[in-house]
Amino acid sequence: MKICLFWHRRDLRIHDNAGLAAALASGLPVVPLFIYDSDILDHLPDPADARLTYIFDQVERLAQETEAAGGTFLARYGKPAAVLEALVQEFDVATVYTNEDYEPYATRRDAEVGALLGRHGVDFQLYKDQVIFAKDEIMTKSGTVPKVFGAYHKTFLARLTDEMLLPYGSREAFTQARLHALPPAAGPRPTLASMGFERKEQYVPTADLPAEDVVRQYHKTRNTPALQDGTTRLSVQLRFGTVSVRQAMRQAKALNPKLLAEISWRDFFMMLLWHYPNTATEAYDPKMRAVPYRNHEDEFSAWCEGRTGYPLVDAGMRELNATGYLPNRVRMTVAGFLVKQLFIDWRWGEKYFADKLLDYELANNVGNWQWMAGTGAVSAPWFRVYSPASQIEQVDPHREYVRRWIPELDTPAYPAPIVEHKFGRDRAVEALRKARQEAG
Ligand SMILES: Cc1cc2nc3c(=O)[nH]c(=O)nc-3n(C[C@H](O)[C@H](O)[C@H](O)COP(=O)(O)OP(=O)(O)OC[C@H]3O[C@@H](n4cnc5c(N)ncnc54)[C@H](O)[C@@H]3O)c2cc1C
Fold it and tell me: Which helix (H) or strand (E) holds 392?
């Protein structure tokens, strides 16, 4: 019997899923699939990874829901092209459905998979699902890539309709009649142990939308890191697609325009990375590509471990290390400190965040790091150096947040500042000025 596969990637949900809805509407029996990509897993630094544990739990949940609805959920470990090639040889597959992914690795992978499936006479259908506007759907009036968020967001709002945020009916269509049950032999799924990993539990907020109160207050509470629910904590859910961006935007559109704007930064950065895939690893601004960063290893370790003597930086890094999360305002502080005060390459910080953040998202991470470093397509001015001492007065005036993470704060055990602010600032600004002049 001819079947189609729906390949889940960063959309670990059944409801409101564009590609899954298309597969279920195709008239062919559907078999959902997840591939644990060995190319990605081989690069995880630690055998106990909270993100992989989270993905594994979500895949198992999807599998249970699929089985409860009368279907089979396939999960495989390996290189996606090889896994798919084996599957189309094993089963009579007419089409592989999936949702678009705009990261450089993913676009290369999907081009390879599309060509391979084509050689086997299998159709490969991709759908826009994880953003509202993708690729070049929003351009400036003169047809160039938008590089000013304010202008981009204005167009975004002007073009955003309620219809665009309506959910796809994939949950309703997810029935025995549309799913396909394979023989049990197709069923065994990889376990964490079979892939060489261990469980690592870390707190992840539930896959629901934030409480309405949190959303209504968001613009007043978002810059107060001491508050546990000052922001939505949607980032992990959006990263793995357990919440759809349409759900999140629908709620934000109804309740808080500031939140809608923040979520659209995600579309914005994904759009920029799609246009400029090179910026995953190099400065967007050519004048910032040969900066003589100091890259002092001991100072980098002090930053990683939260021992810089700047309480907001240290509290942030300790929170990141302990929980895999950091509020946006503190991400900005620690990033600004690394690149401008210690004058260490933003890519070192980007990599450290990539290893630690539960919500690690290439487009958002690179986009924000380049913003803080003054190297990006959108950026803070290269000569702007934030002072952690004045930032703490703005965001944690009563030291509630920093005391939570630094018990020894008011004791002699807490280190003196690793660098004097004015000295660090002048050192970075001078070196950047020179590097930019030399770059012409
Ligand atoms: C140096 C640095 C690195 C970052 N790395 C990441 C990353 O790897 N993954 C990631 O998802 N976000 C990243 N961010 C953006 C932002 O800090 C997080 O999205 C946010 O803190 C997550 O918490 P929240 O869901 O409670 O956010 P909220 O403030 O409640 O925002 C809601 C959603 O809007 C989006 N959003 C908010 N702020 C931004 C932003 N500045 N850029 C892009 N999207 C945004 C996110 O999807 C977020 O979940 C980074 C920011 C900085 C300064």
Answer: helix 388-395
d(CA 265, ligand 1 centre) in Å: 8
Question: 364: CA distance to ligand 1 center in Å?
Answer: 7
Beta bridge partners of 185: none
Please, what is the end-to-end C-alpha distance for the chain in angstroms?
A: 64
Are 236 and 350 found together in one domain? no
- Arithmetic mean of pLDDT, 43-48: 91
Question: Residue 186 Cα, ligand 1 centroid: separation in angstroms?
Answer: 39
pLDDT value at 429 more than 80: yes
Which residue range forms the structural domain that includes residue 232? 131-166+212-275
- Same domain for 158 and 247, yes or no, is yes
**3-state secondary structure (DSSP) of residue 412:** coil
pLDDT at position 177? 87
Is residue 191, in this structure, part of any structural domain at all?
A: no
Across the chain, what does the average pLDDT equal?
96
Structure tokens at 67: 């089985």
Which of 219, 351, 364, 366 gets mutated to test ligand 1 (max ligand atoms within 8 A of its CB)?
364
pLDDT at 389 over 90: no
In this structure, the answer to whether residues 144 and 122 fall within a common structural domain is: no
Return the CATH number at 108. 3.40.50.620
User: b/e for 45-73, b at 16 or more Cβ within 10 A?
Assistant: eeeebbbbbbbbebbebbbebbeebebbb
